[in-house]
Specification:
By secondary structure, this protein is an alpha/beta fold. It has a five-stranded parallel beta sheet, sandwiched between helices. Helix 10 runs antiparallel to helix 11. The longest helix has 20 residues. 35% of the residues are buried. It is elongated and about 65 Å long. The protein has 15 helices and five strands. This is DNA polymerase III subunit delta.
């Protein structure tokens, strides 16, 4: 299986680097798959893991593979676990726990089931608890024979230097507009051309962000964010409308998608803005990025968070004299 077999576009260079490593005599045991959220790094990791464990003449199962261990956030509670088992959307815990790492490590004392190699995918690795990272470090320092780690990360700087130093980094660039549009046409065929165009513009090269834009109806939020960027919001009117547009009780995924949208909206103006405004855009973008990093861990009040986002957008708005 290759990324294209999984419907993943735009990462042929990363796949060539991976297959070249597979064919070498000194395959590195630890890999960090790094790039912005929504590029398909998790899908890539699963295809890469299947290529890693496959051996000539050995039948490979289509579904779950005994030699590919996937660690991702568990359902948030029993009700969410029931939704997962029923194939419905479900909320997850904020972090990958140390217990998940230890259960994985208990599997590593046995030999791989079908061949000589085993893959461990951690998605996302920047969602590990502190104790989880420390436990994982032991396996990265002394990996069992035939075991390879693929750490999917949206913010590699959040990983400990000791983890980064033990891994080879495989970087994933943003996709171009045509590739993002192709994903939208395939996955959201009912979306009209205007919605697709807005989603592509807001996604900043991330197919996942574009799909969230369409699937979570982020168009109204994007329009309000763009107005704040053009007009400012001295009377807090637009920020109030932004709070209404996100909803009274948005789920965590909608909040995170809104943060990603705010970052993309700030980035839209960066290239064409004069230098003084560029500095404001960069400062606001960094602040929203910090909020996005904290949001999966901290229990922010959605209403207060959206007002904070609106304030950051307003701080980088076009100066009034330029807008008039």
């Amino acid at each position: 299986m290759t990324p294209r077999d999984s419907g993943l576009l735009g990462h042929d260079g990363a796949w060539r680097e991976w297959t070249a490593a597979l064919e070498s005599t000194r395959m590195h045991h630890g890999w960090i798959l790094a790039g912005p959220k929504g590029l398909g790094k998790g899908m890539f990791a699963r295809a890469a893991a299947r290529a890693l464990v496959a051996e000539p003449g050995v039948h490979q199962p289509e579904g779950a593979h005994p030699d590919i261990l996937l660690l991702d956030p568990l359902p948030a509670n029993d009700d969410e676990e029931k939704k997962r088992d029923e194939g419905k959307p479900y909320q997850t815990k904020r972090n990958i726990s140390v217990d998940q790492i230890r259960r994985m490590q208990s599997r590593l004392v046995t030999r791989p089931t079908l061949g000589s190699r085993r893959a461990v995918i951690i998605d996302p690795a920047d969602g590990l608890e502190k104790a989880s990272v420390n436990a994982l470090l032991k396996s990265l320092e002394e990996p069992p024979a035939g075991t390879y780690f693929l750490l999917v990360t949206h913010q590699p700087g959040r990983l400990l230097p000791t983890v980064r130093s033990r891994c080879r980094i495989l970087r994933f660039p943003a996709l171009d507009a045509a590739q993002v549009d192709a994903v939208l046409r395939r996955e959201e065929p009912a979306a009209d051309s205007a919605t697709r165009a807005a989603a592509v513009a807001a996604a900043a090269g991330s197919p996942g962000a574009a799909l969230a834009f369409v699937g979570r109806d982020l168009g109204p939020l994007h329009g309000l964010m763009q107005r704040i960027m053009r007009e400012g919001d001295p009377g807090f009117t637009l920020r109030g409308a932004l709070s209404e547009a996100i909803g009274a009780r948005p789920d965590r995924d909608r909040v995170l998608a809104t943060l990603d949208l705010a970052r993309a909206t700030l980035a839209e103006d960066l290239a064409s803005a004069p230098r003084p405004r560029q500095l404001k855009l960069i400062a606001a973008h960094e602040a929203v990025t910090r909020l996005a990093g904290q949001a999966p861990t901290y229990n922010f009040d959605p209403g207060l968070l959206i007002m904070e986002i609106g304030g950051l957008l307003a701080s980088a708005a076009v100066p009034r004299e330029a807008a008039t």
